[in-house]
Hints:
The complex is a heterodimer of chains A (about 120) and B (about 170).
Chain A: E1 10-14, E2 29-33, E3 42-47, H1 54-65, H2 69-82, E4 84-90, H3 92-104, E5 109-113
Antiparallel strand pairs in A: 1-2, 3-4, 3-5
Helix pairs in contact in A: 1-2
Chain B: E1 2-6, E2 9-15, H1 17-24, H2 26-29, H3 36-42, H4 52-81, E3 94-99, H5 103-121, H6 125-128, H7 139-161, E4 168-170
Antiparallel strand pairs in B: 1-2, 1-4, 2-3
Helix pairs in contact in B: 3-5, 4-5, 5-7
Amino acid sequence: MRWQPLSSSFEVVALPGPVVAATESPTIEQETRTEVEVDIPWQVVVHNDPVNLMSYVTMVFEKVLGFSREKAEKHMLEVHREGRSVVWSGLRERAELYVQQLHGYLLLATLERTH
Amino acid sequence: MEIRRQGEMLEIAELDPFLAELLRQIPDSAKPEGVQSAEDRLFSLPGDPADTELCSEWKLYVEPELRRLFRTANETVASDLKMLNGSTKPFANCTLRIPVKHAEAWLSALNQARLVIASKYGFAESELSDHYRSPIGSRRDLSLFQVNFYGFLQEFILHEMQGGPNGAAEA
């Protein structure tokens, strides 16, 4: 896994030079883009599975994602009725961790880029 | 069969030989080896298969950890099930006691077994929710009963993990 989150940085680099009087040539600042990929949200999607019990899925949501019982049941029912539910979105690194934990409980979970 | 919590143990009493045998089969039933659909289900991809980098790194780093996790749960369950082998009379009812601290391992092993069996037989959602199907006339029917019996045990364990009352359930 790429456990490091994608990140963007936009550095302003001052070119080195001697300290000079104001009448001399101005210091030139140069912008350099150090990483091309901009950090965008990722989402953790749980897909319907006819074998996993509804009570089990609810318990996993509470345990892994820290949901309240009410919220866990809401997402569980969304999975059951709609076939999928976005249970979390944010940085890729954390999303990967959640997907891994959900797979540890044998839920069908995927990592998707937010459009 | 009677199932109840007794302090720090989950007790399944009055287990007839048939249900005891189904319990003994949990560790073997949970093994996906040789059934590609079961292997694919237990170790499903974490995202779009077109994302080859994500999927290949997952196979390399995460899947071995998942295999270890599932194997450990099965070993715990297999160890608890040894209690069923000590019966002095071959066709007598018996009792199984599961330490509450093993509940997570049991939930995992039961889930693995249900997923593998369901993948192997390709059960439809309508079949899985048909709890009154009878009689058992084929290996497929028996496997469906096995999936539902394991589901019943999961429900009970979940109920007890969530602090259910010390009541008893019968099947």
